[in-house]
Specification:
Length: about 250
């Protein structure tokens, strides 16, 4: 049985004042079975963990090496030391803004595991790739390239985030989400075996809101969501947590 996961990615948003939002999110986490994860900017990880111990806290990226002369970068062990238990890797914004490729993501994933972090590995197609009917090839390639051998349900979560759905208000149909999630599950089972393949949680991300969350959570092989904009405010994120809790029963 996979535990549902409501994950929020604050991206480059938030200062200490915004930690006040965590209190109601923590209350919602305690009310249900779903795990709640917030990935704030790294500057807030330590304070966020202290502010809401009921919520898991994560980073948004890490370096592939454990230390060294890499100005501005953060090692996975530093995120862990600050209170993080998870780290998002391979987000399409990192792939686009920082020219990250699958081999970079794979190396970061190993670094995250070495530091004891759960890697939340993002995959997703662009609109052009979907329109060219290449979605499953793209997802399969990203999975093969970004996820190292050794993935388990304990150390890895996969987030399917169609690039064209991020921050746009456009959401794939539930059939489209289901097709991709079923494909990801099948690929995991083929590569890692049925037991491991069935244990890895699969999140959908891209314009998840209170109004569409329940429909998305009813889709086959959707174990939760990776939420951007709607995770910044408790008023927006708590209903998503509650929709996920309702779907767990
Ligand atoms: O990591 C989160 C995703 O990029 C989704 O962002 P969004 O919910 O603002 O569309």
């Amino acid at each position: 049985m996979r535990r549902k996961l409501a994950a929020g990615n604050w991206k480059m948003n938030g200062t200490t004042a915004d930690l006040a939002e965590l209190s109601a999110m923590a209350d919602a986490a305690v009310r249900g079975d779903a795990e709640v994860l917030i990935c704030p900017p790294a500057t807030l990880i330590s304070a966020a963990k202290s502010a809401a111990t009921e919520i898991a806290i994560g980073g948004q990226d890490c370096h592939a090496q454990s230390a060294g002369a890499h100005t501005g970068d953060l090692a996975a062990g530093m995120l862990s030391d600050a209170g993080a238990s998870h780290v998002i890797l391979g987000h399409s914004e990192r792939r686009a803004d920082h020219d990250e490729h699958d081999d970079d993501v794979r190396a970061k994933c190993r670094a995250a595991w070495d530091a004891g972090l759960v890697a939340v590995v993002c995959v997703g197609e662009t609109l052009a790739e979907r329109e060219a009917q290449n979605t499953l090839d793209i997802i399969g390639g990203q999975m093969a390239g970004s996820i190292p051998d050794g993935a388990t349900g304990h150390n890895t979560v996969i987030a399917y985030e169609p690039v064209w759905a991020i921050g746009t208000g456009k959401v794939p149909t539930t059939d489209q989400i289901g097709d991709v999630h079923d494909f990801i599950r099948a690929r995991l089972e083929r590569r890692f075996g049925a037991g491991v393949g069935r244990s890895v949680r699969l999140l959908y991300g891209g314009s998840v809101k209170a109004g569409n969350a329940a429909d998305i959570f009813a889709v086959s092989n959707v174990d939760g969501a990776l939420v951007g904009g709607a995770s910044l405010k408790a008023a927006d994120f708590v209903p998503i947590i509650e929709a996920l809790n309702a779907s767990s029963t």
